[in-house]
Amino acid sequence: DTALVWLRRDLRLDDHAAFYHALKSSRAVIPVFIFDTDILDALPDRADRRVEFIRESLDALKLELEAHGSSLITRYGRACELIPQLAHALNAQAVFCNRDYEPAAIARDAEVAEQLSQNGRVLRAFKDQVIFDTDEVLTQAGKPFGVFTPYKNAWLKKLSPFYLMPYPVSRYLERLAPMPPQPLPSLDSMGFSRTNLDALGIQAGSAGAQRLFEDFIGRMGRYKAARDYPALEGSSCLSVHLRFGTVSTRQLVTTADGSGGEGAQTWLSELIWREFYQQVLWHHPRVAAGHSYKPEFDVIAWPNPAGHFAAWCEARTGYPLVDAAMRQLNQTGTMHNRLRMVAASFLVKDLHVDWRLGERYFADRLIDFDLAANNGGWQWAASTGCDAQPWFRIFNPITQSEKFDAEGKFIKRYLPELAALPARYIHTPWLLSEDLQHAYGVTIGRDYPVPIVDHAAARALTLALYKAAGKNR
Ligand code: FAD
After folding, report:
1. Cβ–ligand 1 contact at 432 (below 6 Å)
2. Which cofactor does it need (predicted)?
3. Which end of the chain, C or N, has fewer beta carbons within 10 A?
């Protein structure tokens, strides 16, 4: 009697719910991973850091499994067909996996469960990637939370050591099915090419996650003070590992919860934000289908002025912090959290482009792309989401720049054409006189664009758009 462990966004062996339950069930456990063409075929680019990150993480996991006399079976094709076929071929009565809350994953899992059941097999799914899921944290009236702070308070109140207990997978590893090392498809064979992942210093797999976490533990106390400044190394950079499950959420929460101090508490709050958006998506899957969380804002007719979206994507808005942020995204597949807020707000409230276009652009490029967090972040920035911020609070891209990159260190890293500018001009290079432009060796309009919009005028139009949406309700 064998069991499959079907890995998806949980590419590790330690503290892993599905592995634990499968191994405990005393069967010969066979780990499998499917490079799912339903997902891969939809990717816009054949050089995708995420595909490379997954492959490298699997390579590391396979070696770990091989050290225990087992291996990892990987296939390329449609998961909803291949998993039932593998279960049949390998005579597995049960397939164990960790729960995924995205609508497409829920539909896929339902299809697999249905196929398996036709032959008397079962799909068993476990909570793993969050501390609390589905209906575990609700309001007193039994409704899902729509505002973060009360959700966070209820989440913290419910937290107890029970929920943080690691799954002791290592005790049962002798129950892994013995097998010779299995091949892992190359990127090439799947039609993908390598990216600059190595050059960026992004190490995949559990080892990569643990290295980052150890480094961050030393800085956690300073997190609250440093996290908003993109030129500083303030945050953990663990989002890609949380996305692909190369680190256990329980491990991170245990450390944050156990360390006193404001830094650790603020960081814990961010981990709770992650769960908050996961439960929003679970309870309101329509947000992933292009709908505003607050339906009254669906009536906004976004002007999408010609050229605005392209200028934003190509870092040609003339607002240095926004352009530096977009270059960071385009060159590295990451973007600092403060900059995600600034760039998203700028697209929607300064350029009047539909937030869904920005959401898609981020989704295609972010290495840590997560449907729940990205949608939540965009709806937050567009004021269509579930937060307490009123829509008339609009980020000013200049004061954001002055506040969070005062000396322009981050800007200059990504906009070398502005490297000679002193701090007082770095946020508003269009204010340089011709003489000063000459002195600093930069011609605005040639070396760097003039601003695409005037913030005050853009702000006024945004207020009118949102106000009209409110009236049309
Ligand atoms: P840290 O500051 O070290 O935080 C620790 C972890 O908490 C993160 O790794 C992440 O898993 C979680 N987290 C932190 N902030 C948030 C948040 N606001 N919402 C949800 N989870 C959070 N995060 C993603 O993981 N994937 C996305 O696709 C994504 N898209 C975003 C889009 C927009 C418009 C905005 C404003 C935010 C988005 N975020 C997204 C949230 C946040 O920007 C990133 O999680 C963060 O920048 C990752 O860096 P870090 O790992 O160093 O985070």
Report:
1. no
2. FAD; (6R)-5,10-methylene-5,6,7,8-tetrahydrofolate
3. C
